[in-house]
Structures are given as structure tokens and as C-alpha cells.
Amino acid sequence: MVSARLLDRAYETYRADPAAELDPLLQAVLRKAQAVLQDDDQAQSFVIDIWDVLPSLVIERSFESWLNIRLRWHRSKAIAAANRSREEQAPMLHGEDDEPLTEGDVLDILAHRAAPRPDHEPDLDAIEDPFLRDVAALLLEGHTQAETAQQLGINPSTLRKRLQRFRNSAA
Hints:
Elements: H1 4-16, H2 18-37, H3 40-53, H4 63-85, H5 103-114, H6 130-140, H7 145-152, H8 156-170
Helix pairs in contact: 1-2, 2-3, 6-7, 7-8
């Protein structure tokens, strides 16, 4: 690890003679960045960023302190970029013939499922529980759960709990 004193001294020497002393300062910054970032590409990118700002940089406090702040920002940005770039590949979907489906096939299936089917009327008589049959009828009429609970004379949270119990027992 590069010491604070070494970095501060390299910066002061650079400020005294920028043309002659740039290389030792950038080497010290690179070693510090490699130690902190643990990634050579990120460290080199960081050194380039520092090299860009050095000519106009005037620091009243310790160069090493300023550098540590920049390193933290750089590391945070690198982590955020890595998280954004990480994509999870969707599993391959297969048809009935066990052949992979194309994107067009998948879109056709999704469009078909999303389209309203006028020929498909739900069979409310198939629901054995009279309470659930009444709930289903009201929900199919377009009532919300709160309106359904009000029409049945029960608390909306009670309705949600009973529906959840039904879903759990049906699964």
C-alpha cells in the first residue's frame, strides 16, 4: 500500500515541476488504485481520470485524502455499473414438440393468452363453496375486493384472508 506521506510528497514534487514529475506521481496513484480497487482495468481508468484533472487541481488539504475520496466515488460507480450490466438470461422456452420456441412464437402465445376470449365463460357452478361463488360472481361483474366485501357485509381484510386461505388450500 502506498503511504499518505509518499503520495503527498509526490504531489508536491509534481506541483513544483509538472513536466518532469508527472510519471512518479501517476505511478504512486496507480499502485494505490490497484490496492484499493483490486482490478487493474479499473485502476488504470482511475489513473486516467486523475491525469485529466491534475493540471487544474489545487488542493489545500492532503492529496492522499482527496485521492481516497475520488477512489471511493470511482469504486461506487464501478459497482453500480457492474450491477446494471448484469443481466439474467431467460430460460429457453420449448413447444409441445420439445423444439425451442422463437421470439415470434412466444409473442404469439402471450398475445393469445392476453386476448379476451368471448367463448370462454367461467363456470361459477363449478365452485362448490357458496361464499366463494358469490365472491367470484361479484368480482367478475367488475367490483373491487372492497366493494365485494361491502356487498357481502364483511370487512375487506376478512375477504382477503379468506381468499388467501382458499388459494393456499387450492395450491
